């Protein structure tokens, strides 16, 4: 049986692998991090995505917005493990370049739940959000960690 520290390190490694795949636009690499029955609440698009196929289609659509490359910088991920379940949470700088080569990025908040499945940690739930002003419903573009 692994120790909590070993599990935390394994999840930190999974987060880094996932972030590299996102930055590289590697859809297969991204989807390899998720469980088949993942449920995700993304900051873009529908209220929720159920299952790997639906979330994969959403990832493909999101990557099309960043056809000049994607910026995806995970900032100081925190991980908590209890048995075969774990959570992580962190800010992430996300965006890309427009057709003029101008960077269009902002900070989001991410939380993920993991489950050890067949000896491997997989993301079973993901939630990302963007801070906004509730009075104007406008995104707070200056939000940063």
Total DSSP E strands? 9
Biggest sheet: strands, sense, closure? 7 strands, mixed
Low-confidence stretches: none
Structural class: alpha+beta
Q: SSE order, as H and E?
A: HHEEHEEEEEEE
User: What characteristic shape results from the CA principal axes?
Assistant: globular
Overall residue-averaged pLDDT value: 92
Q: Separation of termini?
A: 36 Å
Radius of gyration: 15 Å
- Helical proportion? 25-40%
**Strand-residue fraction?**
35-45%
What's the helix count? 3
Jot down its keywords.
two-stranded antiparallel ribbon, 28% helix, 145 residues, globular, single chain, alpha+beta, 3 helices, 7-stranded mixed beta sheet
Question: Could you write a compact summary of the structure shown?
Answer:
This protein has 3 helices and 9 strands. It is an alpha+beta fold.
Describe this structure in words.
The protein is of the alpha+beta class. The strands form two sheets. Strands 1, 2, 3, 4, 5, 6 and 7 form a seven-stranded mixed beta sheet that branches. The protein has a two-stranded antiparallel sheet with strand order 8-9. The chain is globular. The N and C termini lie far apart (36 Å). The mean pLDDT is 92.
Secondary-structure blueprint:
Elements: H1 4-24, H2 27-31, E1 34-41, E2 49-50, H3 52-65, E3 70-74, E4 78-82, E5 85-97, E6 103-117, E7 120-129, E8 132-133, E9 138-139
